[in-house]
Automatic annotation (TrEMBL):
The keyword Repeat does not apply. The keyword Nucleus does not apply. This is 17-beta-hydroxysteroid dehydrogenase 14. PANTHER family: 17-BETA-HYDROXYSTEROID DEHYDROGENASE 14-RELATED, SHORT-CHAIN DEHYDROGENASE/REDUCTASE. Keywords: Oxidoreductase. Pfam families: adh_short_C2 (PF13561). Gene3D superfamilies: NAD(P)-binding Rossmann-like Domain (3.40.50.720). GO terms for cellular component: cytosol. InterPro entries: NAD(P)-bd_dom_sf (IPR036291), Sc_DH/Rdtase_CS (IPR020904), SDR_fam (IPR002347). One of its GO terms (biological process) is steroid catabolic process. One of its GO terms (molecular function) is estradiol 17-beta-dehydrogenase [NAD(P)+] activity.
Amino acid sequence: MAEAEAHRYKNQVVVITGGASGIGYGILKTFVEHGAKVVFCDIKEKDGLSAEASLNEMGPGQCKYIFCDVSNENQIKFVIDTAVETYGQLDCLINNAGTHPPHLPIDRFSAADFHQIMDINVFSFFSACKFALPHLRKTQGNIINNCSLVADIGQHHAVTYVSSKGAILSMTKALAIDEACHNVRVNSFSPSNIFTPMWEKAALASPDYDAAIKTGRDSQVLGRFGTLEEVGLVCLFLAADATFCTGININVSGGAELDYGKKSRLDSE
């Protein structure tokens, strides 16, 4: 691999929320491998410190971990400010932090439950964008939002989660319009079943691990889970290469949204 290809985001400064594990870690690893200077935050301090140590040893880029509860806008502001103070600029914000509650019908959720998921999945994106944009306008940088395939196709017993991801899809398009005058691009990506530690934990907690894995795998027409590396490369494309793309959403889905299937709910609750 040529050096230019190996270091596609060399010395660019990136902030990633929720970067200590799962999809966020896959994105973080990809950007460090391609030479970026990354400040990432997460509520999982042990995982964050471990990722910081291992990725800095690996290089060629570098990263700095900050503990952050993304529902707290002052803590998000601190993350953005730290990135700019440490590296002198900001080129890319990747809003990745999020949560998925248990699958339940809407009347099993309280108003407080709904507020909590919106605080994490939507308000944190709003806050990070608000604090990052004054810096991104100077560098003509970009924002990448982690949406979800279910924002388009829905999901059984997941009204609160789907609502939060639908908001991110709309926010991405609206912000892309507003920031075009500053040459700041705003895009999103929508994963389907990516094999993360969270996915495996859910499968282990199910009555039949093998059946759960098969269901997740078979939801994609490609017949497999996506990988963390594949999601990271999509984000790298949006940041480094997709310079004439704004307001778009890329499905990282293995074709999960394609074709007919048994979808009747008449025999289920």
